[in-house]
């Protein structure tokens, strides 16, 4: 079946107004928030699981690759189409199907926007915990595919800890159910396996998520340090105190100055680094923890520890954190974001290393990241019109990532592998590890009609990479 | 390619892999390791994932049935195997793979007991949150394979929430891993999820990494007693709608009380609320829970109570070998419905009912046994419960009387698509060498 024939087929399934195939429309779907581009052959907007099932069957028989897409805010090219492929966009499947207050669950369509779910249940005193920085735009379906995180996942866990069931359209077109409203289901936990499978197993058409009760008390502290090193050591000292904050974020001095200029969050312009620490729970516990955290910070040479007086101040402090990427976008033509993870005790050392790398390559690298769980987001600034500079960025980037791996960390904490880090997978996993994962994918998606080429390198690629210098590969692959 | 077909030849191959001193052929020892009455032909204690892979390759060539074993505290669940060609013990896989208290993570071999792991991290003020039954015997690998947790499940989540990495050998003899050592990691498929609760049917788990928690510095247990289960569940609802976040929220039925340390209120439905925090926090619990509280338990008595609750699944099957033990995973709002069904169907079929459970998260464990001199119908009870199971609920048999073992499947009901589960099984254990037909899909 040719692409035009397939497009006619798609129109018969979803209607004329739910398929895009003009070049000027397709252009809008050729990128996500990462660095790659690829133009799809068609974009289709299903309205229910039956539509998705019929689309999958049609694509499979036509041999045209399919990729599911939420808001396209992903950073790893996970939602980028195969050239000429079909993008299944979920903007018309954006309804909250059920709010079950008794069970603290919601069933949502994949196109529901993350923050809108929390707003939708707010009047019930409930919220949805995972809060990626893109939560104003990103969708629950995309969050499920990538197993997204966010600042508040330190206490409450990432997306997989909040999804108890999924309705899935398999590449065969069959509609199946994994799990449901119960916290766990007996037999194999295919719900947990599905979350974070980056759209390579099936397409979620309904998602059952946990809702949490809003905490009685919240304390938001801003601890101001003269040096990054003091702030980094404080992170471990807070947990050694027996406290698990709801969020524990760090901004280095350079980054917070850019943020302050952009959104006036109230960060001190002369600081070496700040920690944004949020505590939540029972009023009595939060008060005690706030006192203890303040004490720990001052012991670790914090210059000052401020506490947000009210919700307005709290929102402002968070605005600074959540708009940090945008602030840097304002001052630099381009930036490259990493997502490496290190064990918590290695945070001071990795920040030192990042500083050295910046000096070595003569680059500006800002750090704004989830310090509490060791999930780094070094932001490397560059001018994409300068090819030489881009090369330095890639080389610096691979230095940092290799360091994360060397100290027992990971190449991605919450952004996903996608295309962007696919060829770095052999740095973490053996050929046999990857063969097992590939076989599992093939058990569901053997013809790779669904999101081909994502997350798992081909076996040939593994062998080639294993035989070449790791740094050379990382640099070449943009890592 | 092996051509061995006799037990003697198999033993020779296993000796070549693991060394003669790690092969057990002594009939008395093998007999003591019976799986539901079936004596293994040979037992082997490999030292590494490589040796396990070699054993499984032999099993694939010869079509053997291999039963992985840790502390064998849960081997009484599942169907009776037609034969156990190889009992594969993980007891030598006890190496600490990584541990820095500042990371709040640990990586450990599958053969380490849960108690050893818990006490190692407790020295640094940390908590390993899976308080499984018989932790001195139960191993990390067995815990993961059976998906076992304990009363702390309420406050700290399940294994799927804090197991951050897993190493294993698939049924077809391939070494693999998922996840890693760090608490946040989305590189590759989440194979931890796939193996937790898979009951040794997909792979032999050789090691795992876990998130740890700061250990509570002070705890207190508030006990509320009720005349019936409905009042107890109403109290649970009140606790869950309050701002309190206890670390345990456990239901204990009247018939269980006699199995717990002295001083428990006989014939009551109890809800035990375990709180952690300062004196001020505990005072707040007291104020919020109010007059429903009939007693407070602390110190050694509190530790004894929770240890008894932790071991109850085992104690029940020991004290009542004629009992059927069923695990339910329910949407939390359906706990009351299932309790009512349990009470009705056991009464109608002349069975005594005993229930414990993490009722806040929807986990129930129900034991039932024939009343004295009665003709009880356990099979009818089971099918009745299965038919009445709420939507989205799961039900599994953890233990059943020997007379019923051939008739009762372990996985009674799950909302998850069975054909997708079978596709996973075929991928990782295509020749069905691991726990063949013990856990029917």
For the structure shown, list the relevant keywords.
heterodimer; A: about 475 residues; alpha+beta; Uridine Diphospho-n-acetylenolpyruvylglucosamine Reductase, domain 2; Uridine Diphospho-n-acetylenolpyruvylglucosamine Reductase, domain 3; Alpha-Beta Plaits; 4 domains; five-stranded antiparallel β-sheet; about 40% helix; B: about 450 residues; Vanillyl-alcohol Oxidase, Chain A, domain 3; 3 domains; 20 strands
Question: What percentage of amino acids of chain A are in beta strands?
Answer: 15-25%
State the domain count of chain A: 4
Given as residue ranges, the uncertain stretches of chain B (5+ residues, pLDDT < 50) are none
Q: What overall geometry of chain A do the principal axes of the alpha carbons give? A: globular
Distinct helical segment count of chain A: 18
Q: Which descriptor suits the 3D outline of chain B?
A: globular
C-alpha termini separation of chain B: 31 Å
Assign the CATH class of the largest domain in chain A: Alpha Beta
Mean pLDDT of chain B: 94
Give the class of chain A from helix and strand content and strand pairing: alpha+beta
CATH architecture of the largest domain in chain B: 3-Layer(aba) Sandwich
Average pLDDT taken over every residue of chain A:
93
- Strand segment count of chain B: 20
Spans of at least 5 consecutive residues with low confidence of chain A: 465-479
Query: Biggest interface and which pair forms it?
Result: A-B, 90 and 84 residues
- Report the helical percentage of chain A: 25-40%
Q: Please report the first level of CATH classification, the CATH class of the largest domain in chain B.
A: Alpha Beta
In the CATH hierarchy, the third-tier topology of the largest domain in chain B is known as: Vanillyl-alcohol Oxidase, Chain A, domain 3
């Amino acid at each position: 079946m040719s692409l035009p024939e397939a497009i006619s087929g798609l129109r018969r399934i979803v209607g004329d107004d739910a398929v895009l195939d003009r070049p000027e429309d397709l252009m809008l779907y050729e990128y996500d928030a990462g660095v790659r581009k690829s133009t799809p052959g068609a974009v289709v907007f299903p309205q229910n699981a039956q539509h998705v099932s019929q689309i999958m069957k049609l694509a499979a028989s036509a041999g045209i690759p399919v990729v599911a897409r939420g808001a396209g805010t992903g950073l790893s090219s996970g939602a980028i189409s195969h050239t000429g492929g079909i993008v299944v966009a979920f903007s018309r499947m954006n309804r909250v199907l059920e709010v079950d207050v008794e069970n603290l669950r919601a069933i949502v369509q994949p196109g529901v926007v993350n923050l809108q779910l929390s707003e939708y249940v707010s009047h019930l005193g409930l919220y949805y915990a995972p809060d990626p920085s893109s939560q104003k735009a990103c969708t629950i379906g995309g969050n499920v595919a990538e197993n997204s995180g966010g600042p508040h996942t330190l206490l409450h866990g990432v997306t997989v800890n909040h999804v108890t069931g999924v309705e899935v359209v398999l590449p065969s077109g069959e509609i199946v159910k994994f799990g449901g409203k119960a916290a766990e289901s007996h037999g194999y936990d295919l719900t947990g396996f599905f979350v974070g499978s980056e759209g390579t197993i099936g397409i979620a058409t309904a998602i059952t998520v946990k809702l949490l009760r809003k905490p009685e008390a919240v304390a938001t502290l801003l601890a101001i340090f003269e040096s990054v090193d003091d702030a980094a050591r404080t992170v471990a000292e807070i947990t050694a105190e027996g406290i698990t904050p709801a969020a524990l974020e760090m901004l280095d001095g350079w980054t917070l100055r850019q943020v302050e200029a952009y959104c006036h969050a109230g960060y001190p312009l002369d600081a070496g680094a700040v920690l944004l620490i949020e505590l939540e729970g029972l009023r009595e516990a939060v008060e005690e923890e706030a006192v203890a955290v303040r004490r720990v910070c001052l012991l670790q040479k914090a210059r000052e520890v401020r506490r947000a007086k009210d919700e307005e101040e709290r929102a402002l402090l968070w605005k600074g954190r959540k708009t940090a990427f945008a602030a840097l976008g304002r001052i630099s033509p381009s930036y490259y974001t990493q997502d490496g993870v290190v064990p918590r005790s290695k945070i001071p050392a990795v920040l030192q290393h990042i500083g050295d790398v910046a000096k070595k390559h003569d680059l500006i690298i800002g750090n704004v990241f989830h310090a509490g769980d060791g999930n780094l987001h070094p932001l490397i600034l560059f001018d994409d019109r300068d090819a030489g500079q881009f090369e330095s960025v890639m080389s610096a980037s691979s230095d940092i990532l290799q360091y994360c791996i060397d100290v027992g960390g990971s190449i991605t904490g919450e952004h996903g592998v996608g295309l962007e880090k696919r060829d770095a997978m052999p740095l973490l996993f053996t050929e046999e590890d990857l063969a097992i994962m590939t076989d599992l994918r093939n058990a569901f998606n053997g013809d790779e009609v669904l999101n081909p080429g994502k997350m798992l390198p081909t076996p040939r690629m593994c062998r080639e990479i294993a035989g070449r210098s790791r740094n050379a590969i990382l640099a070449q692959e943009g890592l | 390619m092996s051509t061995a077909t006799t037990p003697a030849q198999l033993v020779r191959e296993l000796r070549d892999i693991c060394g003669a001193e790690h092969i057990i052929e002594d009939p008395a020892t093998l007999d003591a390791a019976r799986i539901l009455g079936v004596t293994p032909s040979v037992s082997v204690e490999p030292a590494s994932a490589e040796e396990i892979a070699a054993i499984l390759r032999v099993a694939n060539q010869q079509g053997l049935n291999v039963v992985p074993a840790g502390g064998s505290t849960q081997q009484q669940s599942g169907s009776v195997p037609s034969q156990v060609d190889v009992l594969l013990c993980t007891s030598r896989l006890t190496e600490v793979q990584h541990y820095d208290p500042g990371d709040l993570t640990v990586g450990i071999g599958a053969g380490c007991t849960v108690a050893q792991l818990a006490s190692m991290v407790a020295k640094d003020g940390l908590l390993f949150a899976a308080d499984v039954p018989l932790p001195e015997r139960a191993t990390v690998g067995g815990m993961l394979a059976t998906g076992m947790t304990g009363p702390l499940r309420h406050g700290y989540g399940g294994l799927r929430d804090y197991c951050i990495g897993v190493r294993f050998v698939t049924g077809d003899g391939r070494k693999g891993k998922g996840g890693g050592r760090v608490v946040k990691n989305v590189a590759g498929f989440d194979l931890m999820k796939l193996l937790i609760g898979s009951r040794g049917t997909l792979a032999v788990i050789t090691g795992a990494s876990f998130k740890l928690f700061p250990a509570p510095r002070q705890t207190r247990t508030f006990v509320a007693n009720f005349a019936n289960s409905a009042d107890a569940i109403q109290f649970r609802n009140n606790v869950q709608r309050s701002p309190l976040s206890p670390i345990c929220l456990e239901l204990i039925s009247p018939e269980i009380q006699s199995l717990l340390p002295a001083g428990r209120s006989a014939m009551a439905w109890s809800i035990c609320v375990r709180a952690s925090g300062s004196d001020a926090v505990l005072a707040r619990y007291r104020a919020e829970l109010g007059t429903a509280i009939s007693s407070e338990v602390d110190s050694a008595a509190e530790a004894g109570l929770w240890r008894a609750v932790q071991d109850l699944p085992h104690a029940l099957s020991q004290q009542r070998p004629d009992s059927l033990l069923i695990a339910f995973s329910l949407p939390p709002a359906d706990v009351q419905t299932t309790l009512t069904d349990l009470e009705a169907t056991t009464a109608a079929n002349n069975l005594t009912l005993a229930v414990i459970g993490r009722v806040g998260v929807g986990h129930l464990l129900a034991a039932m046994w024939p009343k004295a001199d009665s003709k009880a119908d356990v099979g009818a009870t089971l099918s009745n419960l299965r038919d009445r199971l709420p939507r989205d609920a799961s039900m599994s048999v953890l233990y059943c009387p020997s007379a019923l073992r051939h008739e009762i499947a372990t996985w009674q009901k799950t909302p998850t698509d069975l054909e997708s589960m079978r596709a996973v099984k075929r991928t990782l254990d295509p020749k069905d060498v691991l726990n063949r037909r013990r856990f029917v899909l």
